[in-house]
């Protein structure tokens, strides 16, 4: 494929575009207006359910569990005080619980020190009572007695209240909500926040730390969107400042801005018209890439235009020459970048598929805006006399000539470049195998984020945990859970789970809860409160009697862990933290034990948020590998086809692989986890890095077709677009460096990984790419003619065609 022939076609297109500039401009405005009208229909959320298709086993198991036991969501308040049995603290807990119950949607019941169901022995047997059903006693001795009684209950200590009485939970049990989590949290969290922030609940005597899935998800979304909006806005301002410094042209500043906003508005608007739901976290990739490409495309075209304008002084001719020299390279970078983004469709994850599709569309839209707006807007204005200072340099500036001199030096030391590249690859590749996949939101957000700091304080407390999962045991027969063997096996399972690395331990006891605690507590009560009777009875009739007596005595906790027909029960396991790889190992052990202890169960397995995260870890690894691998293969095929040379395609891939290898190696050595955001960095960097590679390689091939000499072609390319590559990289690195100021670890990681990736891609483009092209000579045999090519005939006659 001859680059010169393609460039000639783009020259014709540029001439046609300038002649019909008003038609192009009006069409662009109409498309933008129509697209923007669809923004009101656009739906974005961050629902984790989107990571699972309905047919997946994980989703089916979770839905089945919630059908039996209701919502797994709750609103929590971790309360810390010198003594949580202090009358003022208890009174606050009572008032806070009542207010949350009355004002928070879906609030079903309260579990707290003020709302307990504890069996106590009576002459008739036992009754279920709440120690504070008549309020907080004024008598200190009576209060001390109730405190001692509660702390004597093994089922409550280090579960609801710490053994030293410095911590306790207030739990608002939420009813099952019909809408998805994203919609539900918008109803649940705001009124709860208003209550928690009420001045009457602030005191030196206690500290209240709110938590709960819907509550913290709401906080996460608010913090994330605020951080993203702030950093992207600052990045946009940095982009404008850099364009002012480098371009020094009003049109060169306005067009990238309009192109970014217009492309996003149009594509997202049409997404709204089509009813396609998106992900509000993943959209960051689309915004960042559109900003980056708008800058890159604009700078390449503007610098090409300016070079000809300095040399000829003829505006329209220079516009056409700018389209001729940069049009094909820009269009080809669009194709390769779109292909890289569309590779996300192979990931098998809804948010990644969406961001891949919408970003590919936005990339094309950015190109359309740039290729229309720049030639059209630059076509307005007068010609000027050619600048005599550039007569000998063919429009090249002093900085262009310095870049050319640097290129000559690189070619002269070509083997040093090859050796350095090989040594660098050998050093960083082992780091890739050290990368860990971990979807831990605490690590992603970072302790500098206020709500994460609060959650980590809860996790590090005696009672707190951030993550949990459930083990479901379900039989086909009613009353199967009343079988003592089943209950005892549940206790055995709880003991084994307590030995796992991620299980939370409080004062030597694993944080595993189930119906067995209630049965053992009642059995102890029936046996004169003998601690040795805190066991599961061997007689099924006695177990049945205990459960019946507890129920008719007013106990409310029994059905928290067991179904109404006694066919199903579950264990709740709280975790000390979240290590993705360890969790996967832990869950594998739990599944093995469940199969061993409950072989006749109809359905037995693990469910819950942690199981979803573990599944997401696996999907993320597979999705990222598929995406990156597919992207590299597609781009390689396109490069081979475009340059009609297998060797050229492979050589052009090197500067695109370098940043991926370098980023992967650094992540592994630095202990930066691969999560759903950092997983998007490599394809995004690949999409940006491939632009300069294509421009540079395409330019070298074009000049080789004109001169027949590799060294001359490479040196001419350094001179004509070398400075442009530096400018675009500096601007993009400055934009991404803004993310280093974020309090969120994941955005900080995006910042420095992007800077490293883009910087390394530029260095590779400047060094190893031209060196390998010079060494391997993949285009054709040299004609033996050195030097700069003569001015093309089309340039000489172009002025007469307007």
Automatic annotation (TrEMBL):
Membrane-protein topology: Multi-pass membrane protein
Alphabetized Gene3D superfamilies for the sequence: Multidrug efflux transporter AcrB transmembrane domain
One GO CC term, this protein: plasma membrane
Domain of life: Bacteria
Gene source species: Treponema ruminis
Pfam families from the UniProt entry: MMPL
Subcellular location: Cell membrane
Domain Membrane transport protein MMPL: 147-379, 561-776
Taxon lineage: Bacteria, Pseudomonadati, Spirochaetota, Spirochaetia, Spirochaetales
SUPFAM superfamilies linked to this entry: Multidrug efflux transporter AcrB transmembrane domain
Transmembrane segments: 20-39, 228-247, 253-276, 283-302, 328-347, 354-378, 415-435, 625-644, 650-672, 725-744, 750-775
Protein name per the record: Membrane transport protein MMPL domain-containing protein
Keywords: Cell membrane, Membrane, Transmembrane, Transmembrane helix
Matching InterPro entries: MMPL_dom (IPR004869), Mycobact_MmpL (IPR050545)
